[in-house]
Fold each of these.
Amino acid sequence: MEKQIQKILNDLYQLDPKLRNKEWDLTKIICELIELKPQAEIDPNFENWLKQELIKKISYLSNNNKFNFMKKFFYPAFSLAVVVLAIFVFSLFNQNRHLAINLNPEVKIIPTKDMAFNLSTSQTVPEANQNSEAVGLGGGGGLAILDRGEMITKSEVYQPVNYRFIYQGEDFSIEDEQLPVLKRIKNQDAVSKLGNILSKVDLGILNFSKLINPRIQTLNIIEDRDFGYSIYLDLMNEMVSMNQNWERWQTEQTMLCQQNPDQCQETKSLTENDLPSDEVLIEIASAFLQKYQINMSSYGKPFIDNQWKTYYKRLPEGGESYLPDIISIIYPLTIDGQEVYDQEGTGYGLNISVNIRENKVIGLWGLATRNYQSSLYATEKKENILAAAEKGGFQPYFSDASGETVEIGLDTPQKGLVVITNYINGMNEEIIAPCLLFPIKEIPQGHDYWRKGIIVPLIKDLMPKYDFNYPEPMQVILDVE
Amino acid sequence: MDISEKEIIQECQTGNLEKFSLIYDKYAKKIYQFIYYRVFYRETAEDLTSQTFFKALEKINTFNFKKNGSVSAWLYCIARNSVIDYTRVNKKEIPLEEAKEEKSFDRIEEKIDRAQKIKQVENCLKILNYKQREIVIMRVWQEMSYQEISQILGKSEASCKMAFSRGIGKIRENLGDLLLLLVLFVYFK
């Protein structure tokens, strides 16, 4: 404070050197003025709120300059939806209204200050296997593995195995002291704008104009045609999914089932010869994406989710087996050229399910806006990352003394991004963080392993916290036959 | 901030508006304080802070370093104009007593202290004209240089220095004895 006062006094003396004679008075006045300075701390809640509002506006302005509502959302995504919604809007409001809504699937990243997100709820993972299907704790999943509960043969009953991960790759280093973490943001532009339009509608049975601050959270559109789709728009979360419109999805099998339920149950199991090649499956998915003009600019090279093969291989020769009817094709989200993985090391992004009996796409999910805030966080030390990789990363494995120990070699890691769902205040937040993927290098003969690699986040605040007190699986489950 | 303000402005002006958030991060607190010291009312300061940044975002394409000086001077100008517009519409200056509504969870003694302090601020500032008051606030409370003050007010540095000197002189003439007592009270209580 003394420095500040002296600076002010010097300025005053420069103007009128005689003021030096009044220095005592002036010092007291300036001192008192400084003492009187009111507290004017900005409320952090307000500061954050205003930032979010500005981001919404930025997002709107950025997109509105280049695209309008139709081009930006419905037209590239769903030409079908354009027609339906345009008719909906036109017929309801009978006006040629330009409605700009920002639901752009392209990746946009807005930087913010360091360590801006609440990552405190990052998961505590048990020092245990979470591949719960193997120990009969439920889970497993994906569209590719269908209703296996009734088909499990005796040979499939869990045999305890300890997986031990050993790093066998080359030396590597963590070069960056800080790296950006991304948090997905939603501007909910469509929620309010469509809500505002709705507020002009009187349905007779209900007058929407009487609603206070109406918002449209979801919208369901169907294609009213044979083998049409039902399109579900989750406007709150800015996500789109598509599924069969069951009312108009009549296959030979479903018609047979309706006419003669007994014959329906005798549907012939698929054999390996019935499986289309990966190329054919990708061709079917690509044709679908092209037909509906789905904007794929944020997604990388597709791959087939072959997890089901791990389980299929376990079956003994001549054992009762079923191949899945439905196979998933994944188009991984890519950000700045880096692929995004889920915590098991599988590509995360847009999923398309193909029914291989009909060679038709039956579902799409994971299409979403990709607006993110970016904030820098400190990276973890190499030795801690290696230790976490050898524990199994995000998905460690139970140690079971009675089981056989299988050593799995881990190769030199490659950089990528991992998606983490952070549950805060009753809401799920999508966090995307830089990570290392340690590819599975070696699996002993006669064994298999469902993951392609072990994922470890590079960010200190996101490192898995292992819970050593996690209970062992109950013996009763292990003994089931 | 890793990139310079010049680069941020260039990015924004070529369509990469996302970079505007870096400007916000840097200036949000300062602009809020600048406004608060003029309105002394939290909600009004928040409203005017919002207006300032939205106006800045909308007008970012018109920003020119030659014309507007620095980003900070430009933002303060927008903030100052927002305050002036607000006071014009409301046709009065905001009574300082309204500042008493701050955080309701404060203890009663703190409320009384604040009320007394605000009264002192009022006594001190009301004898200054608007320009002098602005300069005293910017110089003493916000510790701005005369260069910054002159850019914001669109006056010469010399004129700002003179106005400040006259303002201090006015306070000395009018409140010298009172302030002396207050200072003694503050230091010996």
Amino acid sequence: MANQVQKLSYVDAKLGVGLPGQQTTRVIYDSVNATAGQQFYEFFTNFAGKTEFQTNLTTNKLDSAESMVIKSIQIIMNSATSNLADHLNLNIQVGNQTVIKDFDPSFNATSRGLAFDRLHSGVGVNAPTNLELRLLTDIVIPPQVNFKATLQVSNALVAVNDDITIVLKGYGRIFSAGNSF
Amino acid sequence: MGMSAQDKMITVANRLGLTSLKDMQGTTRMVYDSQTTAALTHTFFKGAAQRAFPLTNIGANGNQFQVDEALLVEKIGFFIPSAADGIAYGGLNGFSVKFDVFIGNKCVLKDATCEFAGEQAFYNDGNVGSSVIDLEGVGILIPPQVEYYVVAKPFDGVGRVASSQRLGCYLFGTGALLNFNTTI
């Protein structure tokens, strides 16, 4: 089975992205400031007015010489009234293609003995507001291809101004000129 | 060295004549279904198209995957919904589950039990006992367009007697999603 490095090279080569670039671990994130009772969220589609701590992107695609693998998905809910332990529905699209479909990551929240990972440590047992999901299949975000994530939460307990953040993490490549300009 | 999940999916699919599955989008997938009326026996996924999120995530397509979509089941978990709305849930909390898994006309997992705290050797979730069972080998493939369902009976893990409970079940593993490799 190909590892993250091999898969990224394979997919990039198939797409005609031949530049080697600087190898790295890439972390991208986006936050949505909720309205009270909001149950549906869309990430990586609107960056207007967000601070550098709410998102580290300015557009919903990677640069022309940049690509990454989605290996880990983290969801963070900064809320005193809501949580990530109740059923969730996560979808991720890269290009026009759904790459994560109707996935419920809430089983990885808290310590309930229901986690997908065999070595697991739930965070926030009383207020489960942070979960991470390690994917079994590496998913590539190629350069210059739009991507987005949507999250539906089953409880309507989110308060106004609560922040919900999705972090995508994995092996990546960033631009390296390899020459002087 | 053993076969990887991806290798098993492609091998089984090829044997079934599903030669295009190898070209589909790889993913990590899980399906779940829950029933919030306490009962001694639950049948999950069959008829789940009639239920809506958050009781299930299988959608209108029901208990079969659409064309060129599949799931290699690597882990099965059971949970207990907290209330009739199915929003919140917890682990088995001392109960265990005896269950069968059916794919098409075939019983692929027979008279198995998911014992509460039964995976403690390699399963670490704080101080909480596990409510899941890892499938040995590489897992079991649910091919596209074949109905699947799980019949489960909760029982008291200490007294080993049947117990009427609300119950839910998830199937987790490596999946494939439909990907058209041409324009239409």
